[in-house]
């Protein structure tokens, strides 16, 4: 893409603007449908639709971009004209995305991230030709030609390291994703937005109906609901990570993924702050893990993970070869973990069980018919607390520290000394009496915010040695 002339987005951008406007106003549409008379509702909907289309057309017409004097210059705005200049030297990564509509017209969405990007990308061109997107990316990155390994519609053979996910592994990733909780959380959020439109007597009738059911039927109904969410989780994982591939070119990693929306992510190695290995409760017994990285700065788009997945699923025995190939500085060969002391176990069990025990007693008092559920939850939390204690540990090397801990999944984090922004020692009176302490390590994360890792109830002596290591004290 040559310097100088200005370019507009593809006209399909008008459609994307209309869709965005409709999505943002969906709850107002529902509210208007319930509140207003049918005639006035249709009239207002038609007026606002015409205004939305007109505004989308004007927004497309007034949006221009060009590459000039080592800067990407963007001008936009209907009533208020805005100009944004982005220096090539400030650009950290350039991502290309192609949704279903994009692929119909051979278009892509180009997003640019800089060190100062907040919750959204520094600049976004939501509909440009694939060829123009590649030319612009190469110009901003200082490349003379498009990279052969990273194509929206396919990949060609190259000498650069390349790994792809197989259909069998992709299915296994979906089956063991454990995304039931995430889908249920989204369902709960959606329900909370719509509950204002649901009559109160509906809740009373539903609760009375559930209370009258047999326990066996309730359990069966819960299993069916979980099964539906599990199948949705499998589908979501396969759609998100379909055709997943990672390759390394020079000092950058390139990731492509997605069946419906094909994403192309660029990760400069210098922005990687930590490498993590996650072992979920479901995958751990079978020896499967997920490898991810924490990247400094950048944007967190809607629906994206707070961490960037380097590979969705692989055997634990494959980690070392993967790291040697793509991130040799993060090799885990011959790592020995120092475990938590035995006297730390009671703290983990108390934290896991006491809140659930109190809530279970209160719930059983008001709803004695569900006391069995409180017992099951208490037992699960006891086992989880025990696992958290057993999995905790750390390893210190001259230039890096490796810590292992568990929330629901067991995570192993590899952090280089130069990437750690802060080291903090915490100790409450009960820990002090036992000679224990908690550490908190902080690094830069997405959105320019901090990412924190805590390891609780270590030997105080070990914590002090870690503090000396971080501060370069002898």
Automatic annotation (TrEMBL):
<feature type="transmembrane region" description="Helical">
    <location>
        <begin position="348"/>
        <end position="366"/>
    </location>
</feature>
<protein>
    <recommendedName>
        <fullName>YdbS-like PH domain-containing protein</fullName>
    </recommendedName>
</protein>
<dbReference type="Pfam" id="PF03703">
    <property type="entry name" value="bPH_2"/>
</dbReference>
<keyword id="KW-1133">Transmembrane helix</keyword>
<feature type="transmembrane region" description="Helical">
    <location>
        <begin position="40"/>
        <end position="63"/>
    </location>
</feature>
<feature type="transmembrane region" description="Helical">
    <location>
        <begin position="209"/>
        <end position="233"/>
    </location>
</feature>
<feature type="domain" description="YdbS-like PH">
    <location>
        <begin position="60"/>
        <end position="139"/>
    </location>
</feature>
<dbReference type="InterPro" id="IPR005182">
    <property type="entry name" value="YdbS-like_PH"/>
</dbReference>
<keyword id="KW-0472">Membrane</keyword>
<feature type="transmembrane region" description="Helical">
    <location>
        <begin position="170"/>
        <end position="189"/>
    </location>
</feature>
<feature type="transmembrane region" description="Helical">
    <location>
        <begin position="12"/>
        <end position="34"/>
    </location>
</feature>
<feature type="domain" description="YdbS-like PH">
    <location>
        <begin position="250"/>
        <end position="322"/>
    </location>
</feature>
<feature type="domain" description="YdbS-like PH">
    <location>
        <begin position="393"/>
        <end position="470"/>
    </location>
</feature>
<keyword id="KW-0812">Transmembrane</keyword>
<feature type="transmembrane region" description="Helical">
    <location>
        <begin position="372"/>
        <end position="389"/>
    </location>
</feature>
<dbReference type="InterPro" id="IPR014529">
    <property type="entry name" value="UCP026631"/>
</dbReference>
